[in-house]
Amino acid sequence: MKKTLLLIVALLTLSITADAKWWIFGKSNAEIGLKYLQVNKIAADETGPKIKVFREMLAADGLIRINGRGSTGRNAVGSVRISLDDKATWSDVKFSENGTFEYAFKPEPGKTYIMLVEITDTAGKTNKVDETRKEIALSDENIQAKVRETLDAMFDAYNTESLEKFMVRVGDNFAGDKAILERAVKRDFDALGNISLRYTINNVSAGAQGRVFVSVTYNRMVFVNKTGASSTDTGSTEFVFDSKEGALSLFSMKQPLMFGLSDAENVATGTVIGGGETALVLDDSGDIGGALATRSYNSADAHFGYNFETQQFEDCDGTAANCTGQVFFMPGVPYIGVDDNPETTARIGELPGRSASSATLADIEAAATLQQVFGAFAGKTFGIKYGADRYALEITSLSGSGTYSITVRTKAF
Fold first, then answer.
1. Is 37 helix (H, G, I), strand (E, B) or coil?
2. Does residue 191 register a pLDDT over 60?
3. Is 130 in a helix, a strand, or coil?
């Protein structure tokens, strides 16, 4: 009996060595599925069973791109396949270690593609493939001009703080409640000034019930009335519009929100995958969180500090010891440091290759170990720990000798 068992083990070992198939590495009862699925940057889970892709919105190569991320619980993704003809044929898709994948194809005019996505984990278990079924069709309809006209009107009304003109573009069946959005936008106008929003359309698709799905890349700058500081961010987000009688009206928005920042929880219907490092949100006090603040300062002294709480530079009265902010500068050295008060246990460290927008809390925890750093040049970013608070500070410009001019971007965590 022992010889038989040994022979079976030996044969199994030989088969593994000779042909190491991915499905032999264990079994799992974890649910297999998709964390997200996008067709030309539009979330496929909201469009309904049919997606209309507009030819004018395709890239120069004329391809439709499908990207997503598999979810496999404890196991890793073992394979990804896509069918465009209702399972008649399948194409293997390359994927990364975290399960993300992308597949592109060139659509033919007048043809409808029945897409299904199959995710298999390293135990051989697959997702519920039929739940991923989508009908994709190419349309020659010109939609971009209509979308741009609507977005231009909304962005212009918001930038100029015209509540009435903004709300005209919002549908009566707005998913987040139209009255809540109106109150939130009004609070935005009360808290913010000099609003500047710009956008570029990434893609437009149409789905069920005549709805139009729009993906945009944006950049934004606002001034917070409470502090006088400017905040900036950039990223991508999504809108959904109802289309009736040739006109578009806003149905829903995702985070990062462009409008209604003061009540994001009740205004947004979800979050865009990879939308941005942070999403600007107005708190109840009228201050902004998750934001980048940009501040500039001119100093005739060789010592000055920066206070993260007030987002202001401060004169140090001739010596670094007199600085009251969390960090202080000696640009002639060049040098940046934090105070040595044992109650704050302040620490600082450089974050190579990072900006204030890309810095993470983990970066700061790992790097902020010193009390002073030499080499405070333009283009460098530093992580600061100050008691329980954490900050990223990027020196975007620093010039002068004797009289100094500095601009920094900061982010609080």
1. strand
2. yes
3. helix
